[in-house]
């Protein structure tokens, strides 16, 4: 049977709301037969440890107070989650257990491991009951019935048999962290013990995968809480994960990985707070690029040890319930120990260990082969420059193919310095994967231009085209699509496309940065932007739908992108390749205030108004504009004024205004009823459009005016004016003197009041638009390197 194991840590279960979220994840991500391993809720283990300390110090009042704390927390969870009989029984059982703890404490019979085990037992029981109440089959299992250790060693054969009780018809909610010994006593599995329980159970059940649901979104290049630019990796190979763990990185514990050795069990680290976001997969060697990591060490002691015995580091780690790193340098063996535990280790090694340095802080650098030495030297130089005294700096080979460096210093360094180190040591290792959606007029031209442009981009950062998407098919090649024969590859290898497979393909990309370039004109495609953001993709849009979506959706997208440090560029959605967005932003950055924006924002309507003199029917020109690649796929999007309305909204939002499309008044450049029906039925009624435009032209000519489709945003008056409409303008006005197809943006601001700033040039066409998208790609790439 293909089962999976899911593990939820304490922070994932800290409140009733979190239990509810976890239950939803289980219902949507797990199948009957899967095991769900849980830690103690929130800070329960810490509270139990506090209870143990009070008990040891014979502090009876303290003991009772902590029992009360535990009770309040559990009662709150039970009362908020369970109802009726389930609630009553659960409260009764909890009461009995807490009374027993109080009695045992009084009688001086408390046992530490047995006491600590309560946290996991309560979580598993409550979660199973809550799932049952939600009408899903679930049962709680005590891992002491599944995991047996004898003489400190796991009894694999017996455990494998015991795990057969896990039921294929239900969710099996199993306590993490605990096991039993041959005398039936409780033993705990140490720090991150629940992660270890999960991988052990996965091995014993021959599960397909283990998902560690946690409060971070995956494994990052460095701590994302300290360095905003930290990169989340889609894939990390087990050897590097193991090394990181041994250097004390808290995301995965070295022990967690051991049961997976020589198995094909997939290990995934995923956020239980954002279950749709991209995760990190820990893969077997060769299935992921070697990555760069920086991990920090706080307050460690360095101890020299004589004759390290095989397996002793593991034993010592078990003893202090903490990771220990050991290394050989100049034929001596050293241990790096969290300072709080040094005395325990030194005592344990009775006479074989000497303290060499105390209170060290440091940096671990995990990186691909052959560069650890160089990066370690570089890190040391940077730290020295910032007056950090270095005690040790060396690099080592770890397992084949793996290297690391350690820089141990006298002082701690702050997040600013870590950010600098990250920028200097990690940034160079990044690659950008490009996925292009839409290979029509503009998209195909963009790809043609990309071959040359890649040379330029590669000076900044290695950039690869890895995906192409059209309305029905897609092509993904994670090593890169060969641009000169993309069409051939498309014809032989493109596969059917649906949203789910597209998201899965994005998730699989093993790149530090990814960008989806939307050159479709599809609203449906734009609705996937939040999913792209969840996959850590930057966005570039020529498509105007997302930029003009309803404010609530639009703001939520912006917020999501901001939280993930993702960029969204959409320069070509207004004015094709013209730098209108740049100009508006630049004016604002430099303290200017835009008061009025007026112009012709449609290449199609500009071309039509300039070319139409009544000698040929208007609709014939419209078909020509379509052939030239100026119009939207359905040119009525242009004629209706909707396309211009969208552009005005995009610029208004750029100026910080909170507007929606309906706040911009619109007068179409065609009879309203022509908007109905499909394109062919429109063509049958094109005479109506011709007559409509002929009338407008005759009227304009009579008054010696010319026709222009004009957009205006005026912030000068009390009431904001935002409108798009066909207007007749005087021949000496800037809007009249356009070349066919040109856009013009007339900007009045504090600094450009009487003499407006004017931006004018081609406002549509595949070449200029594709070039504008390249500008967005260039600036995105540029922003990623520093
Ligand atoms: N033309 C111009 O001058 C300018 C255009 N733009 C914008 O650029 C975009 C593209 O314009 P243009 O190239 O002229 O349009 P086209 O109609 O020529 O091409 C559209 C492309 O999008 C693909 N597509 C449509 N729906 C989907 C979908 N749901 N998922 C994936 N792909 C899809 C189509 O696939 P298939 O090939 O299978 O049909 C096609 O390849 C539009 O948003 C437009 O507003 C912006 C500035 C100027
Ligand atoms: N159809 C549009 C294309 C660019 O956005 C136009 O004509 O301006």
TrEMBL record:
GO terms for molecular function: aspartate kinase activity; ATP binding; homoserine dehydrogenase activity; metal ion binding; NADP binding. GO terms for biological process: homoserine biosynthetic process; lysine biosynthetic process via diaminopimelate; methionine biosynthetic process; threonine biosynthetic process. It comes from the Bacteria. It catalyses: L-homoserine + NADP(+) = L-aspartate 4-semialdehyde + NADPH + H(+); L-homoserine + NAD(+) = L-aspartate 4-semialdehyde + NADH + H(+); L-aspartate + ATP = 4-phospho-L-aspartate + ADP. Pathway: Amino-acid biosynthesis; L-lysine biosynthesis via DAP pathway; (S)-tetrahydrodipicolinate from L-aspartate: step 1/4; Amino-acid biosynthesis; L-threonine biosynthesis; L-threonine from L-aspartate: step 3/5; Amino-acid biosynthesis; L-methionine biosynthesis via de novo pathway; L-homoserine from L-aspartate: step 3/3; Amino-acid biosynthesis; L-threonine biosynthesis; L-threonine from L-aspartate: step 1/5. Residues 579-777 form the Homoserine dehydrogenase catalytic domain. Its cofactor is a metal cation. Residues 438-570 form the Aspartate/homoserine dehydrogenase NAD-binding domain. Transmembrane segments: none annotated. Keywords: Amino-acid biosynthesis, ATP-binding, Kinase, Metal-binding, Methionine biosynthesis, Multifunctional enzyme, NAD, NADP, Nucleotide-binding, Oxidoreductase, Sodium, Threonine biosynthesis, Transferase. PROSITE patterns: ASPARTOKINASE, HOMOSER_DHGENASE. Pfam families: AA_kinase, Homoserine_dh, NAD_binding_3. Its EC number is 2.7.2.4, 1.1.1.3. Residues 3-271 form the Aspartate/glutamate/uridylate kinase domain. Bifunctional aspartate kinase and homoserine dehydrogenase that catalyzes the first and the third steps toward the synthesis of lysine, methionine and threonine from aspartate. Homotetramer. In the C-terminal section; belongs to the homoserine dehydrogenase family. In the N-terminal section; belongs to the aspartokinase family. This is Bifunctional aspartokinase/homoserine dehydrogenase. It comes from Pseudoalteromonas denitrificans DSM 6059. The lineage of its organism: Bacteria, Pseudomonadati, Pseudomonadota, Gammaproteobacteria, Alteromonadales.
